[in-house]
Amino acid sequence: MLTRRQLLERAASLGAGAPVLGLAPLAWPTGVQELTPPAPRARYWVAGADAGNDCLRCHAAGEVLTPGHRHRAAAVKCLLCAQRCTITPGGRGACRARANVRGELKSLVYGRPLSITVDPIEKKPFYHFLPGSDAFSFGTSGCPLRCRFCQNWELSQSSPGDFSPPYRTPADMARAAQGRRSPIIAFTYNEPAVFTEYMLDVPAEAHARGIRSVMVSCGLMNETPLADLCAALSAIKIDLKGYSEAFYRDVCGAELRPVLRSIRQIAATKVHLEIVNLVVPTLNDSDRALRDLVSFVAGELGPDVPLHFSRFYPDYQLLHLPPTPVATLERARDLGMAAGLHFVYIGNVAGHAGNHTYCPACRKIVVRREGFFVTEQHLVAGRCEYCRAPVKGVWA
Predict the structure, then answer these.
(1) How many Å apart are CA 156 and CA 248, to the nearest integer?
(2) pTM
(3) What is the pLDDT of residues 35-94, one digit of tens each?
(4) What number does CATH give the domain 116-384?
(5) What H or E segment, with its residue span, contains residue 259?
(6) Pick from 139, 212, 314, 383: most CB atoms within 10 A?
């Protein structure tokens, strides 16, 4: 089995239709303007020169401005995510994937996917969205977070200049997914919001081929781009990394509040939603942290939104921590079930009973899984085969 590091070092010569696409040697142009084709103009930003007298266009609600505040004419404010980076000419945002090029915000990752492979949809994990299906999955470099436990840090914490992938149009990606007979395209691995422009264009090409699109995200987007994504996507999985501002600030380099706002916004749409919490020993595994997270899901999202508690394995900057004890994950699942949630899962623990889907009425297994693979399904038109009770999800 390839490690992600080995995957990233595979040669790009495998081609778009191959199961895994690697990367060419480092050969990024010295200047962003030298990219071929050129880096496209990004969406969701405002320039200081454009703000004019409406200075607050560049500032968050409630932000206090000092007397005599002036905009730097060539600076831009990125409005894609809650980091709201102010970027001076030649600079990049916190995600590294968006740059100020002569007063315009450019996307450095549009059309430049890195890791491309076909995964089981359960690996994302989505358990209530076309279970057993293949997902044509890809990501780019960059992320607005700095999670110390990141399991995909080779991509998320890298910069576009670290790699030189071939350019692939949205139609290229849709055709590649179609060629692999994948009914789903999954935007994943790094934080897909950093390539939002690409993520809006690929689903349009995919939809014309009968392929649905899903996103695996940290949920840090602002309202307008997230609304556009909800209109383009069929399902979104949010990594709710913990339930305290201190954890988000100290371990992830971000804030919890905008993530909760994004989750509420998605839940108010018709987009299928699932929540995942990676349980990290000593950092977000206290009874209070788990109970507060469960209370948020149960109280604001309802009993039918799947909640996954996943096992942490030592990685990136937390190699000194042990894997999550299975007993901790079981405790978290018990809290969820006691709060009235119908679908609470234990992830990254092979063979565990908490990996199956149970009918909320008769409690029989309606989707049985071994690892990331579905071995049995007992659903008929979205209802339990045994008692005919409805089971919430997208099953066909």
Answers:
(1) 17
(2) 0.88
(3) 778 999 999 999 976 544 444 555 555 555 455 445 555 899 999 999 999 999 999 999
(4) 3.20.20.70
(5) helix 257-267
(6) 139
